[in-house]
User: What shape does this take?
Amino acid sequence: MNDDRPVLLETRGTRMHLTLNRPRALNALSHTMVRLLDEALARAERDEAIHSVLLSGAGDRGLCAGGDIRALHDDARASGRASLEFWRDEYRLNARIARFPKPYVALMDGIVMGGGVGVSAHAGIRVVTERSRVAMPETAIGFVPDVGGTRLLAAAPGELGTHLALTGRSVGAADAVLCGLADHHVPARLLPDLTEALAEPGTSVADIVQRFATPPPVGELAAQRDWIDACYAADTVEDIIRKLRGSGVPEAETAADELLTKSPLALKVTLASVRRAARLDSLEAVLDQEFRVSSRAFEHPDFVEGVRARIIDKDNAPQWKPGSLAEVDDQEVARFFAPLGPGEQELGLAQAPADISAGEGQDGQGR
Assistant: This one.
C-alpha cells in the first residue's frame, strides 16, 4: 500500500475494515494509531449501519509487532512521560475491543506480538494462519507482559501461559488456539476471499469465518503439557528453573537456559503479574494492574538496557540490574504492584465508569 496514513479505514456494505499501515515497521503501534483505532471503533459502535469490524495488517509479514519500542526506549532514556500516556490510551483501547458490542474480527496473520496481541486477542473472532507467530516477548527486553496479556496467559490451560509469559516464546496457529489466544485457523491464501466474504450483507460473521476455517498444522505445546505443567506450577522463578533442570526432559533444559538470559527482575514481576491476574475478576482490573507495573518497569534501567541489547545494538548481551534472581528483592517486586504515588494518575478502568462499551463481545462472549 502506498497510502502513508498509519491506519486505513474502508467501509464496505455493513463492514468497517481497519488496516494497520506501517508495513516497514511490521505495523508497530504509535500513539497516533491507537487514537485512530479508538476513534474508529467509537464511531462504529454508534453507527447503526456498521454491523461488524475487521482488523488486518498491511504487508505480508504480520499484523503488528507491538508498540514502537524505539520510541518508548528514547522516552525512557530522556526520563519522559509520553509512554505512560501511550499506554493509558492503548489499554483503554484493549478494553474497548474486549467489550465491543458488534462482531470484531482480527486477522492475526504473520507476526503478532505485544501490542499486536492487545488489538487482536481480545477480539470476538480471532483468526490465525499457518504463518502466524503469536508472542508476549517482553521479558527479553526487561519489561513485563501487558495489554491484557497477563489475563490471557493466566487463562491458558494448565501452566502453558506461565511458560509463554516467562520465556516470551512465540507460538503458531494450533498452539495459539490451544492457549486461548485465537479461535480459528484459515489458510493465508484464503484471507483475501475471507475479507471479501465478510463484506456480504445479511450473513452471520461467525458463519462466514467458519466456512473458511480449516484444522491448523500440528502444534508443539499439547505434547509438552506434562513437563510444562509440572515445572511451572512452582511458586518462584528459582523453583521453576530447578524443576526444569531436574526434569530430565531436553526441552525443559532448553527452557531453563532461555530463562537465564532474561531480566531477573522482569521474570519475577512477570510471574507475580500472571498469578495475580488469575485472581482478578475482570480485564479492566488486570489492565489497571498492568498500568502500575508498566509505569514501574518504564522507570527501571533494565528496560532501556534490554531494548539497547536486543533491538538497537543487537549485541544480545544485556547487563541486567540486578544481575541474578537471588539478588532480586521481594520488596522491589511488590513495589511494582503498589498504588502509584503523588503526581501519578492511575488508569482506573475498574474503579470508574469507563468510556468503553458496556456490551458483550461477539456471540455474547465478552473477553
